[in-house]
Design brief:
The protein has 9 helices and 10 strands. It has helices at residues 28-42, 71-83, 99-106, 133-136, 142-151, 157-162, 173-185, 189-222, 225-235, and strands at 3-5, 12-17, 49-54, 58-60, 88-92, 95-97, 109-112, 117-119, 154-156, 168-169. A 6-stranded mixed β-sheet has the order 1-2-3-5-7-10, with helices on both faces. Helix 1 runs parallel beside helix 2 and helix 2 (71-83) packs antiparallel against helix 8 (189-222). The longest helix has 34 residues, at 189-222. The radius of gyration is 17 Å and the shape is globular. It starts with a strand and ends in a 9-residue tail after the last helix. The relative contact order is 0.14. GO terms for molecular function: catalytic activity. Belongs to the enoyl-CoA hydratase/isomerase family. Pfam families: ECH_1. This is Enoyl-CoA hydratase family protein.
């Protein structure tokens, strides 16, 4: 099973990415399963908020290069998280790469623990963070976005909090989440839904204005010679041909 969904615990339903042997990579199947689960939870009266968690040492390594999702399907998943009438939180205590950062950008709240690390590695495999720019760029510090998107450098949870990728860094990720979950349990469901609409309006504007262009760019780049060379190098654990 690629995904597990808990029963609501005082209104909080945990959705766990559960493909640790593939570093929770976003395959076409996982994207579809996650989108379907979120659709159902959006209509579940017992769910006040959704907690997105992971098994293993990786939260999400980005697109599964062996079974990549269709860019349009990935855009639809990210938009579903943003539009869900219930808050979505991320519990991150593992590595996050490439498209995994798009999942975080789409979430309303996120807490990173000491086991977390982050990198926008697209340029290192010959593509660009096209689709994930839709939820990320409205949230990230512009200078940090330029640095990490252009260089692919790795950074830690404290830096992720500083630049706006996650809400908070906590030495104990569950302790960091606790006050947020308590606050959501105390909030009226209708008020939460309307407040989320206010907070996500700018992100949805980015989807409305740029989804088609970003989807087309992603498809074009993934079909390029650079992407082929970069993917082969990544899978074979060697440097791509452009490294100086």
């Amino acid at each position: 099973m690629s995904l597990s969904v808990s029963s609501p615990a005082r209104g909080i339903t945990t959705v766990t990415l559960d493909v640790p042997e593939r570093r929770n990579a976003l395959s076409a199947a996982l994207v579809g399963t996650l989108a379907e689960a979120l659709h159902d939870l959006g209509r579940d009266p017992g769910t006040r908020a959704v907690l997105l968690a992971h098994t293993g040492t990786t939260f999400c390594s980005g697109a599964d290069l062996r079974e990549p999702p269709d860019p349009a399907a990935f855009v639809a998943l990210l938009r579903r998280i943003v539009e869900l009438p219930k808050p979505v939180l991320a519990r991150v205590d593992g590595h996050v790469r490439a498209g995994g950062l798009g999942l975080l950008g789409a979430c309303d709240l996120a807490v990173a623990g000491p086991g977390s690390s982050f990198a926008l590695t697209e340029v290192r495999v010959g593509v660009a963070p096209a689709v994930i720019s839709l939820p990320l760029l409205p949230r990230l510090d512009p200078g940090a976005a330029s640095r990490y998107c252009l260089t692919g450098e790795r950074f830690d949870g404290a830096e992720a909090a500083r630049i706006g990728l996650v809400t908070a860094y906590a030495p104990d990720v569950d302790a960091g989440l606790a006050p947020m979950l308590d606050g959501l349990r105390r909030a009226a469901p209708g008020a939460l839904a309307e407040t989320k609409k206010l907070l996500t309006a700018r992100v949805l504007d980015a989807f409305d204005d740029h989804s088609d262009a970003c989807t087309a760019l992603s498809a074009r780049l993934f079909g390029s010679t650079e992407a082929r060379d970069g993917t082969e190098a990544f899978l074979e654990r060697r440097e791509p041909p452009w490294v100086l």
